[in-house]
């Protein structure tokens, strides 16, 4: 029986044994079995073995969905929920505030964005490199490079151990677009970072007829599409790691992949 009001949850091993249950213990875990079926498990907390309790509706909450979707803005959450007929079970609580978002998404006022031209897919690709991160990922990467199609805003992300691999990543991206989408990107827009200003990359672009546009020095907003994606990734990354049960900085690459996947 489950008695929530009981001050001390108790399990009678004598009663369980009389009912035909068996016990299997290893390390800090004990499982109670009926023939081959595990009925419940208990975990040692340093003093006693305790049975973790789980509610069937534990994950059907607005806050859980907000975290599972990479800490989406509430306004975007509301738009997404309109796609589901049973979205009423995830109605946003009144005055909902996510502490992780508050800590991770504080910003200053933006500059006015230039007017967007009517472009087609792969007419212009924005790219930027972020890093190095304080700790390497589990794949030993320290940087990530984003590539964003201006027309569709679809994004790709690649991880690298050092900046010098940027040229190879760009070449691989162009080759993938040519093979999978039968179109060579017409132009790339990047900042003046040394990883993009190389003879090898300049020669590659020239051989493909690709125009390389540079944003003005000390003006990251001029490369706004790439910078805005970096901000979105950074906010989602920090919020996901900060709200995780176990804070593990080495999971930053997994959080970046999750953020870009959700965005796309």
Cα separation of the termini: 47 Å
Low-confidence stretches: none
Strand order of the largest sheet: 7-6-5-8-9
Annotated CATH topology of the largest domain: Nucleotidyltransferase, domain 5
The whole-angstrom Rg is 26 Å
Q: What is the CATH class designation of the largest domain? A: Alpha Beta
What is the arithmetic mean of pLDDT? 85
What is the CATH architecture annotation of the largest domain?
Answer: 2-Layer Sandwich
What structural class do the secondary elements suggest?
alpha+beta
Q: Would you identify the CATH H-level superfamily of the largest domain?
A: Ribonuclease H-like superfamily/Ribonuclease H
Number of strands: 9
- Which percent band covers the strand fraction? 15-25%
Put simply, the count of helices is 8
Please tell me what the overall shape is.
elongated
Strand count, sense and closure of the main sheet?
5 strands, mixed
List the helices and strands in order: HEEEEHHHEEEHEHEHH
Total number of domains: 3
Helix % is: 25-40%
Question: What's the SSE blueprint?
Answer:
Blueprint lengths: L12 H6 L3 E5 L2 E6 L2 E8 L4 E2 L11 H7 L5 H8 L17 H6 L20 E6 L12 E7 L5 E6 L5 H15 L6 E4 L8 H10 L2 E4 L9 H20 L8 H12 L1
Parallel strand pairs: 5-8, 8-9
Antiparallel strand pairs: 1-2, 2-3, 3-4, 5-6, 6-7
Helix pairs in contact: 7-8
Structure description:
By secondary structure, this protein is of the alpha+beta class. It is elongated, with a radius of gyration of 26 Å. The protein has a 5-stranded mixed beta sheet with strand order 7-6-5-8-9, with helices on both faces. The protein has a 4-stranded antiparallel beta sheet with strand order 1-2-3-4, with no helix packed on it. 32% of the residues lie in helices and 18% in strands. The chain is built from 8 helices and 9 strands.
